[in-house]
Design brief:
Length: 88
Amino acid sequence: MKPEQVETESGTAVVAVTVDARGLSCPLPVIRAKRGLSTVDAGAVVHVLATDPGSVADFTAWTKSTGNELVAVREEADLFEFWIRRTR
């Protein structure tokens, strides 16, 4: 099985962990993402799946305040996907 990859501004990144936060409302998607990030080393990318429309603003603000990098966002129908790189 090929590892999932995402295109970023600096090249291609391999996803270390996928966090499924579908069906959860604020602040639970961010809390689940934080837990996922805590399991990977700095530089690793976590892929988050969410259905809460507010998660776009939540993840943008949260990554900015924590210093982690929001490397990609994709919205498709009722699914929001985020790729977050742990910076420290």
